[in-house]
Specification:
It is a single chain. By secondary structure, the chain is of the alpha/beta class. The chain is built from 17 helices and 11 strands. Strand 8, helix 10 and strand 9 form a beta-alpha-beta unit. Helix 13 packs across helix 14. The protein starts with 15 loop residues before the first strand and ends with a helix.
Length: 411
């Protein structure tokens, strides 16, 4: 394996690290259970595991990388095959669409059979309901897929820098795609405005004042992935490195781990792009803090400037450290996984590998390593949250298509 620590892309000099003074240990706080809970996971799992095509995604050992970083083990939860949508988002957006449709159809018609809706048998009743959202690509694909599965209409808003290939992937599920000017946060506001004007229903993965129930359902869907990872592990992780946009994925993972393990929950590090580090800045200021600008990062799924209002309290108390990494670190991590040198050959997308990149950077910085307690006994869990969701971009970065990488892994 190439000496990772000699690569400028993984140099701590190009990243930032902040140990969280607000981190708390102990039992999972009761107030957080109104947002994310084990009971909510049980409900979500009962529905999601019944959908056609459901199967747990693989938990892959990166043994060679673990040896190089001098830790006991590294496991990578590969979400690239989730329901054929290419990312973990398939769990959240579609589940939230279902929950929203159940609520609205019950308001209109009284009691309805949730199972019938979940299996597409109430499509006629749902056909005049329109759901919408803003997306960098993956969440919109999940919402569009869920709307098609249950019979509703979907309108998906994408911002200026979302690739046309990602837009086409959304259109393939029958959604109308509307491109907006500006960045992701601007598209969130436009989706909310158009929904209010047209009587549509927003299915957002971020929350804001007066809008919390649907994002909570989105995050609760993600907990299915965490439970799968724990079920496939021989021992609980001691450390987790999580990529973050608005914070929904990280909050879902932390909540599930915290409620499961209490004071013994793993040490969690959140990783963001340097150019869109709203959670890092929020931790430094001790309150939700927006970052502005074009948020132009190759890690498109994390090009977010405003933290989720309901995710932030869980992150503020549950995260041990916050990191911000440059785009080059994500690109190098993609190539590392594709090469097989980490111990397995994996197609990891530019946002999906940020946690891996953060681990490598932190492991190469003695002070950060000590702060996190990373040592030879550490068992690290990573969430590979997407595959080649933009196939052309992936091929340009890695030098081979995702299909070629997958074919090589099977030989």
């Amino acid at each position: 394996m190439t000496d990772l620590f000699s690569l400028q892309a993984f140099s701590p000099d190009t990243a930032t690290f902040f140990g969280n003074p607000s981190h708390k240990k102990g039992a999972y706080p009761a107030p957080f259970k109104s947002t994310l809970s084990h009971a909510g996971y049980v409900r979500a799992a009962g529905i999601i595991t019944s959908w056609p095509g459901y199967a747990p995604t693989p938990l892959v050992a990166l043994n060679k990388l673990a040896e190089r970083l001098d830790v006991a083990s590294i496991h990578y939860k590969d979400e690239s095959g989730r329901f054929g949508l290419g990312s973990f988002k398939a769990l959240g957006g579609a589940y939230a669409v279902l929950r929203l449709l159940v609520s609205e159809l019950r308001r209109r018609h009284g009691d309805i059979d949730e199972t019938a809706l979940a299996t597409g048998r109430l499509r006629e009743a749902a056909k005049d309901i329109t759901v919408c959202c803003a997306t960098d690509g993956n969440h919109g694909r999940s919402v569009a897929w869920g709307a098609r599965m249950f019979g509703a209409r979907a309108v998906i808003f994408i911002h200026a820098t979302v690739s046309e290939q990602r837009a086409d992937a959304i259109r393939r599920y029958g959604a109308e795609v509307v491109r907006t000017s500006g960045n992701y946060d601007g598209s969130v506001h436009e989706a909310a405005q158009k929904a209010a004007q047209n009587g549509w229903f927003v299915v957002s993965d971020t929350s804001y004042p007066g809008y919390t129930d649907v994002p909570s359902d989105v995050m609760q869907g993600y907990s299915v992935m965490v439970a799968e990872a724990l079920g496939a592990s021989e021992a609980p992780p001691t450390h987790v490195f999580l990529q973050c946009g608005v914070g929904g994925l990280a909050a879902a993972v932390i909540a599930h781990l915290w409620e499961a393990y209490g004071p013994d929950m793993p040490i969690v590090t959140v990783v963001e792009p340097v150019k869109a580090a709203c959670l890092y800045e929020s931790a430094r200021s001790g309150k939700p803090t927006a970052v502005t600008g074009d948020l132009d990062t190759i890690m498109a799924g994390m090009a977010c400037g405003e933290p989720s209002m309901i995710a932030w309290p869980i992150l503020q108390e549950g995260v041990s450290a916050f990191m911000a990494i440059p785009d080059d670190a994500a690109l190098a991590a993609m190539r590392l996984l594709a090469s097989g040198a980490a111990g397995a050959t994996i197609v990891g997308g530019e946002s999906g590998v940020a946690g891996l990149a953060g681990l490598i950077v932190a492991a190469g910085a003695p002070d950060w390593r000590r702060s996190l307690g990373l040592d030879r006994a550490s068992r690290v869990l990573l969430i590979g949250s997407e595959g080649d969701t933009d196939p052309d971009l992936y091929a340009r970065i890695v030098g081979r298509t995702g299909d070629a990488v997958r074919a090589g892994a099977q030989r």
